[in-house]
Amino acid sequence: MNVNTQMSVKNKLSIVVGVIVFLALSIITIMAFVSSRNNLISNSKQANEDYLLITETQVEGYVDGYIDILLAIKKYIDSLGKNQVLNFDSMEQILGDDLKIFKDGSNTLAVYVGFPDGTMLVSDTVSDKKGANFRKRGGGVSSYDDPSYDATSRDWYKGAIANDGVFISDVYEDSVTKLPSFTYSTPIKKNGKLIGVLGVDLLLTSLQKTFEKLPGNVFVFDTTSSIPFASNNKSLILTQHPSMEEIKKYHQQFGDYKTFEYISVDTQEERFGICANIDNSKAKVSYIACATQKQDELEMLVLKDAYKQIIFSIIILFISCFAIYFFSSKLLSPLQAIQKGINSFFD
């Protein structure tokens, strides 16, 4: 046996071990890739579920909070004597100045009472600009603001009568602030007789500020118009997004807190989505809150992790081959002495 034979054995041993290590590391890398992908998807779905739960809680708290404010004002009006709420004039004397207090105290845009003759007592930004606590409006009375205004023809008035309780309007853009707004209203009765309808207008600024702090991609829309009124993606607010009907369809199919996959109508992106209904029995309204995520965002994270695994495996492979070659050289070095002895004997 000569040195070339010794080197050949070392090389063959290193190659065999290298192939074995390569196959083992390849299998481990593939298994780690699959496991990592499944874990990332599972964790992402759980995170979106958590975001959705926070969103649902915030919206429910917002809606219930302003319903409580509306009903607190109604309770005050209900506590007034019959003669104090007999007609428009008596309500003006007793309630007019209080409307300003209610508006400022509840941080709303306007507080008002609409009457069956179409007139209205209102404290709003217009009365604030006039330096007055309230103003009189509509009902065909020429001395009032906007004589042609008819409170009874408005959705907030008719909705409260139809519900015989709290009514919440669809979201709309406030003419002054250009921000999403709602109107809450409820009928006022005395001894079963309709006195008028109490209403409050409010912005969604406080709710929107909460949404802006949320991670992920979350939004809420009403089931009628499918137009988002709150989201941490401002471009969605008050826009008729083409994917909303698609999302609503999948939510109806899968149910609350069930993850589904869909393709965004406008961008053709594959996405995960999870939604939940937000129903309020007091106001008979229903909203849908959702959290969505691009699938390619997860794939990028998976690939990034896979690249790390591959680089690590290559490093381990080179280290293993070098170690085998080094140790095999040490272990096979006695062959050189034997070879020399045999050569000396025959010489």
Automatic annotation (TrEMBL):
CDD domains: PDC1_MCP_like
Protein's UniProt name: Methyl-accepting chemotaxis protein
Membrane in keyword set: yes
Keywords: Membrane, Transmembrane, Transmembrane helix
Transmembrane segments: 13-34, 310-327
One Pfam family of this chain: MCP-like_PDC_1
Domain of life: Bacteria
Organismal lineage: Bacteria, Pseudomonadati, Campylobacterota, Epsilonproteobacteria, Campylobacterales
